[in-house]
Amino acid sequence: QVQLVESGGGLVQTGGSLRLSCAASGRTLSNYNMIWYRQAPGKEREFVATITSSGSTYYADSVKGRFTISRDNDKSTVYLQMNSLRPEDTAMYYCKHNQYWGKGTQVTVTT
Question: Can you give the pLDDT at residue 25?
Answer without folding.
Answer: 87
